[in-house]
Amino acid sequence: MATPLLAGRGISLSFGGINALDGVAFAVEKGELFSIIGPNGAGKTSLLNCISGRYRPTRGAVLLDGQDITRRTTNQRAGLGIGRTFQNLALFGHMTVLDNIMVGRHHQLSHGFLTGMIYWIGGAEREEQTHRREVEEIIDFLEIQHIRGEIAGTLPYGLRKRVELARAVALKPRLLLLDEPMAGMNLEEKEDMARYIIDLNEEWGITVVMIEHDMGVVMDISHRVMVLDFGKKIAEGIPEDVQRHPDVRRAYLGADEAALLGTA
Amino acid sequence: MNTQLLVPLLVNGIIIGTLYGVVAMCFVLIYKASQIVNFAQGEFLLVGAWICWFLLTEFNLPFIPGFILTLVFMMAFGVALQVVVLRPMIGEPIIAVIMVTIGLSIFFQALMKYLFGVFVKPFPQVFETASVAVLGLSVQPIYLLSLVISVLIMGGFAYFYQATRLGLAMRATAFDQQAAQSLGISVRQMFAISWAISAMVSSLAGVVVGVVNGVSSQLSFFGIKVFPAVILGGLDSIVGAVVGGLVVGLVENLAEYVDSQWLHWGALYIVAPFYVLVLILMVRPHGLFGTEDIERI
């Protein structure tokens, strides 16, 4: 079997006496759409932060394409092709939508401070055009042409979520981490978002790791699902299997109800 | 009205005001990037002016290469300061970091006195002509040059922030460090760059004032003068810094006019900007262009 794009080896994370994650191991293959679910406080976002580099695991390792990236900083990991969105939107509210997306191109723009100053001589203009074209593609794809010039902070919630996704895609990620991309959306917005995620995964070839609470969506679009509870992995597999797993039912419904369902 | 006196004072106000504006911009640059209120801003001028003076008198360098070497030195100085002193302070309470900048200010003032003495030392003559006539006024050429350079720098800042990759990355860092990092921006690098630019550009003002008045520890007082400008414009607004600088320059010189014509209290021009500072803090604490919810120190 080929090297998985992303692998976690016994990831543990503790804050003082609290174990947020306890020996979580998993592997995500190239091209997969992988979801992480679990009750509140199960450690989903902590795990995502360990992958993106915001937290460094107390024990264990994170591997990208077989390469140990546990000690890399967040921005280095972004440079290696890990893009992400945040649970509570983290757009640059005072910038335009276009500028927000352009920040996502940061590490793609090879021209730095000095060459930027001699913009017209350095060939930066041609580079800029290529970037513009790719950014336009993203804008087209996510259907945000009409708001490209608006200040991001003034947009309605659903659109801001979309702009944040656009910004993460602008990074040209190999691996895209989505932290509750559909939280707080209405049905129509959720359907749109699900379509974007599927297209990014299938047509753009981006491997997606997603945390989401909407079980309908998760079971619908995920290739595989991992379930966390109290920092431990309790199940992993294709959606149908995970749904039927007794430990998962217990985690979500509580021991008594699960027992009741079992007898029913 | 004594226009014979008023007009030169106003011209002086505009020229000094743009210099205040430039230094205020440098101050805002650091504040925006790292939320640090840099009380050692005036020492950037002081160190820069002394270094330039040293290169010109000890090594007999001509002004232009000496000045360029000074800028290079100040860039390294800014980075070194950030890396050695301020980087370990990341994550510490902001008030502790501000105390460190006050410490730096005292340290560098003392160090400069130790190295170069306490007396005012004049710059070697930089320009052939002592003054040029502009609209019937005689103006020192260095002031004219500084006005041109200041305006260029202001334009450069605007371009830098709006249109360059680095400028965009710095704005992003200023707004949300987590998000900026997740997009591949090195926050440490942004901090270092902001200190480098700030030190470099501030030293330019230091050299200009040094050429006119001679170099002494008085120069660091310039950094204090920049506070009213920054508070007036708003701590986090580049445009505000420029406007604030101009206003402070003009207020200073108008105060001098009022003082010399009618009041005769003496030295009103030194305190006038601080009256403005107090007034602004009472009426509009976030400044004319600042963000309203900024943390006030």
- Main sheet of chain A? 6 strands, mixed
What's the CATH topology label of chain A? Rossmann fold
Stretches with pLDDT under 50, minimum 5 residues of chain A: none
User: C-alpha Rg of chain B, in Å?
Assistant: 19 Å
- First and last CA, distance of chain A: 41 Å
Rg of chain A over CA atoms, rounded to whole Å, is 20 Å
Low-confidence stretches of chain B: none
Instruction: Please bin the fraction of helical residues of chain A.
Output: 40-55%
| Largest sheet features of chain B | 2 strands, antiparallel
Which protein chains make the most extensive interface, counting residues with beta carbons within 8 Å of the other chain's beta carbons? A-B, 32 and 20 residues
Which strand order spans the largest sheet of chain B, edge to edge or round the barrel? Answer: 1-2
> How many β-strand runs of chain A?
10
Span between termini of chain B = 41 Å
Strand content of chain B: under 5%
How many domains comprise the coordinates of chain A? 1
CATH architecture of chain A: 3-Layer(aba) Sandwich
